[in-house]
Amino acid sequence: MSYVPNTTDEQQEMLRAVGASSIEDLLTPIPEAVRLKRPLNLPESLAEPDLKRLMLGMAEQNADLDHYVSFLGAGTYDHFVPSVVPALVKRSEFLTSYTPYQPEVSQGMLQAIYEYQTMVCQLTNMDVANASLYDGSTAVVEGALMAVGPSGRGDVLVSRALDPQYRATLQTYATARGFTMREIGLEDGVTSVAELEAAMTPDTKAVIIQQPNFLGALEDVRGVERVTHAGKAAFIVAITEPASLGVLAAPGDYGADIVAAEGLSLGNPMGYGGPALGLFAARKDFLRRLPGRLVGKTLDSRGQEAYVLTLQTREQQIRRERATSNICTNQSLLAVAATIYLAAMGKQGFRELGEQCLQRAHFAQERICSLPGFEPLFTRPFFDEFAVRCPLPVEQLNARLRDQGISGGYDLSRDYPELGNAALFCVTETRTREDIEALVAAIEEVAGED
Questions:
Q1: Averaged over 338-362, what is the pLDDT?
Q2: Peptide bond preceding 132: is omega within 30 degrees of 0, i.e. cis?
Q3: Can you tell me the distance from the alpha carbon of 375 to that of 371, in angstroms, rounded to the nearest whole number?
Q4: Are residues 275 and 400 in the same domain?
Q5: pTM for this structure?
Q6: What's the CATH code of the domain at 364?
Q7: Domain range for residue 401?
Q8: How far is 11 from 281, CA to CA, in rounded Å?
Q9: In a domain, 59, yes or no
Q10: pLDDT tens for each residue of 60-119
């Protein structure tokens, strides 16, 4: 028997209503081996002041960026969030809003989503954007599914420099949906165009790369586009660091058909890696197959501007069994935060953000690689992340850096063991010259001790 608490009269009545004589009957589908055979090991209940004191004490054990200087990136990026963003996004009209099925009572939220879609199109230079997806990884999945089409068959060629978690998520869906995912190898940290060309077949439905890629390097996007479209496949570009769009060409400028991106760093806190915001945009050819919601602007019966959900026959709330996607979500609160952030930054501010990240990262790479035994892993250009070959294990280096209040670079041996001792450092506009010099001094001290 599993451990179950004594039931009250009300609970017994509920059990009888569903045809069960005990809570144990409800647990029948759960395998016996995974059932708990004892009470939960919980302490006695506390008064509210004592509970608050306990929770605060536990929270103080967490490390945060008020106590650590972080040089981690790898898909989650530390960018400054202007105070106007949380001030506005916490307004009750946004914070407690419901999915806008009824346009007559949701005009404010619908307008915010419309502005968000417009800004995503401007950032990516694509024809249409949705609102929205769970995160960057599921956005990549939706892009692949859209390219493969209703048959669910075909090959999807994926760069090995695509975020490892994105590749893992895509492989899960490939196994379930029936298409084949094949990885394309790298040359000097970027997708091998020659290997891609050799791998293309008539069954290839899509090619997916990341720009900048997971290793920080800038891909030969025009070379990949040429090969992809010559093979009549869809060109999908993933972006995990949207700040790069302040200085790099937009995907639409180099022929992308679908853009799947992570928008967490656009005005949203990192918060243990989530919740996240999946940006998704495409060319108008894909309009009716786009997952998620689309907000359009029209005129009402009085000639005034009005906002509505459009093309709703694609939506899961209308025809669930025929929906374009059943894993999409509105993510409206995070989308609104991204909209406020981009509006506050403006075009010039967003460009300056990208320039600061670019300049500070290159300064940091130069300083780190001036130390004995540290050298660039690749010769390719980069944005705000760069890979460095280290003379000692990265795990050991990072452990020593943490003792000095510094979060070092991402240990690439976790996902790319062939690269050896290599760290992926990220430097955004939040890292000062003093922060970078402190990192270099700490690395030099740790390396000198070994």
A1: 97
A2: yes
A3: 8
A4: no
A5: 0.87
A6: 3.90.1150.10
A7: 69-79+347-449
A8: 49
A9: no
A10: 887 777 678 999 999 999 999 999 999 999 998 888 877 677 778 889 889 999 999 999
